[in-house]
Design a protein that fits this description.
The chain has 145 residues and is mainly alpha-helical. It contains 5 helices and no strands.
Length: 145
């Protein structure tokens, strides 16, 4: 089974793959940035100044590092939010909307099944239920005539 098929078959595999890919890209980018920064002699003078500032103002320096760390963690949090929203929440909301329509008797609209993962399995099951309900209601209506 190819990597693409493994990723396509599971929402959690998709999230894991995107997260790991982001970590690899971030790591490679960091190495490149660190190389450029630390291959310059002026960088060592800046580091010495930062160390001197940290010794003189430890609380301010700790707050600065905390702020930088917070900013760095926001990026993966925001990316994860949008990934979960587009890959899980939006499709589940679409299914819930279809359920609401079926609950008021709208059985004619077919659900589009466009995934092969767990959400796709749920869409398929829901579509089979819709078709079964339509058949049962049609049979009941024909028996009453």
């Amino acid at each position: 089974m190819s990597l693409q098929n493994i990723i396509k078959k599971s929402v959690i595999n998709k999230i894991l793959f995107i997260s790991l890919s982001g970590a690899v890209v971030f790591s490679v980018g960091s190495v490149a940035i660190y190389y450029v920064v630390f291959s310059n002699e002026q960088t060592y003078q800046l580091v010495e100044q930062l160390i001197a500032y940290a010794k003189a103002h430890p609380l301010n320096f700790a707050m600065l590092l905390g702020f930088i760390t917070f900013q760095a963690t926001l990026i993966p949090i925001i990316l994860t939010y949008f990934l979960v929203k587009t890959e899980i929440i939006n499709p589940l909301n679409d299914i819930a909307d279809r359920m609401e329509k079926i609950s008021v008797g709208e059985l004619d609209e077919e659900m589009k099944i466009d995934r092969e993962d767990e959400i796709g399995n749920l869409q398929e099951s829901f579509e089979r239920m819709r078709v079964s309900l339509k058949v049962i209601i049609d049979k009941l209506e024909n028996e009453q005539l």
